[in-house]
Design a protein that fits this description.
This is Pilus assembly protein. Keywords: Signal. The chain has one domain. The strands form two sheets. A four-stranded antiparallel sheet has the order 1-2-3-6. Strands 4-5 form a two-stranded antiparallel ribbon. The chain has helices spanning about 1-55, 90-95, and strands at about 85-90, 110-115, 120-130, 135, 140-145, 145-155. It is built from two helices and six strands. With about 160 residues, the chain is an alpha+beta fold. It is about 35% helix and about 20% strand. The longest helix is centred in the first third of the chain and has 52 residues, at about 1-55. The chain starts with a helix and ends in a 6-residue tail after the last strand.
């Protein structure tokens, strides 16, 4: 009888340790996904900045509109759907020997003019990156995985 009680106690202890190990693994997996999303967003931000600094002006910039209250980047319609303004980073940029990302959703970015308090106009570049396990619903809301957002101000030398 004493041996059965000791076996029961050992089994309960082992079960508790297994649950703790699985919980720790889930936390580590989530942190890994968030880190991958941040790296994808950073790569997208740098790529979009490079495209904007090119002299050909081929990368689209959303103009500053008088009386506009909400920035384009803060509107869901700018990122999804038929009125999408954001541009995806080409897969060739994301998947190479230097950047071995394997993503279901490519990161994207959006550039828009913004007025500073001193009256100067700059470009606000917003990028978002996704973890490999990212999934969204039809409205573009995250269902699984991680999304990371990054922004940078960019002042161009052409007077803008």
């Amino acid at each position: 009888m004493l041996a059965l009680v000791m076996l029961l106690i050992s089994s309960l202890g082992a079960t508790a340790l297994l649950r703790q190990a699985f919980g720790t693994e889930r936390v580590a997996w989530g942190a890994r996904g968030q880190l991958q999303a941040q790296q994808a967003a950073e790569l997208a931000l740098r790529y979009c900045e490079q495209q904007l600094l090119r002299s050909d002006g081929a990368w689209p910039v959303q103009p500053l509109r008088a009386g506009q209250v909400t920035s384009h980047w803060a509107q869901a319609s700018s990122w999804t759907g038929p009125g999408r303004l954001a541009r995806s980073v080409p897969a060739a940029v994301m998947v190479s020997e230097q950047s071995p990302f394997r993503l279901l959703s490519l990161p994207d970015c959006l550039a828009e003019e913004q007025a500073l308090a001193d009256g100067a106009t700059v470009l606000l570049v917003t990028a978002r990156g996704f973890s490999p396990d990212y999934h969204a619903n039809a409205q573009g809301r995250t269902v699984a995985g991680s999304v990371a957002w990054m922004q940078a101000w960019l002042r161009l030398g052409d007077g803008r």
